[in-house]
Design goal:
The chain is an alpha/beta fold and about 230 residues long. The protein contains seven helices and eleven strands.
Length: about 230
């Protein structure tokens, strides 16, 4: 919880202990401003969620050749990652008059709800009425696998993040692709920057933000992306 942790960070600050945020920004994010209520972090290591959404949307555009009805699936409404990823996607889709967002749904970043969402979509949009479904989280693999097991061969599914399950779903064709926000890389950088900070190499630590790269993964490169 990016706000509940603020009092603890303030205690660390008072004790002279440096704090590095990984994956989740500390404080309340509004636009490009972060209100930390006085809590201080050395840096934040993670993704630019607007850029993440743009990358996902570009995958959708490629998958359906810039034309068709699509559905967007939220993670948790109000979560900063969800909000900014959706904003990024919409900024891309607005440039393609042939793409129509016919519905938005919510899966609360849970596999079972994602599958339920896909079940509803398959019933509502039979045949070739739906071109793609895009979710802001990795749970999309579960719905895509369900659709594949029930004969879907037309709807393109695009996920977010790159779990083992997402990788397998891309390999077997259930998912078209995903955006790789690597938690492994975030963890590695977190430790590296902590070491740099504590060994008086502070200039090596990007601040206030260290954005990680967001490579796209499809069947074309899935075997080479770990």
């Amino acid at each position: 919880n990016s706000t509940a942790i603020l009092p603890v960070i303030k205690k660390a600050n008072a004790a002279g202990i440096p704090v590095i945020a990984v994956n989740e920004p500390v404080g309340v994010v509004t636009g490009h401003h972060v209100n930390t209520s006085g809590a201080k972090v050395v840096t934040y290591i993670g993704d630019d969620d607007t850029a993440y959404g743009v990358a996902e949307a570009n995958l959708v555009v490629k998958a359906i050749h810039g034309k068709g009805n699509i559905v967007m699936i939220h993670g948790i409404l109000g979560a900063s990652a969800d909000t900014y990823r959706f904003n990024g996607m919409r900024s891309v889709f607005s440039k393609y008059p042939g793409i129509k967002v016919v519905s938005t749904m919510v899966d609360n970043w849970t596999n079972t709800t994602n599958v339920t969402d896909v079940q509803d979509l398959l019933a509502k949009y039979p045949g070739k009425d739906l071109a793609a479904v895009v979710s802001v989280g990795p749970e999309m693999y579960a719905g895509a696998e369900y659709a594949r097991s029930h004969g879907n061969k037309t709807i393109q599914f695009i996920a977010g993040d790159y779990s083992v399950q997402v990788s397998a779903a891309i390999k077997n064709g259930a998912l078209y692709g995903t955006v790789d926000q690597s938690p492994g890389l975030e963890g590695q950088l977190g430790v590296q920057y902590a070491y740099d900070w504590l060994t008086n190499h502070k200039s090596l630590v990007p601040s206030p933000v260290s954005d990680i790269p967001l490579p796209l993964v499809t069947k074309a490169n899935v075997n080479s992306v770990k």
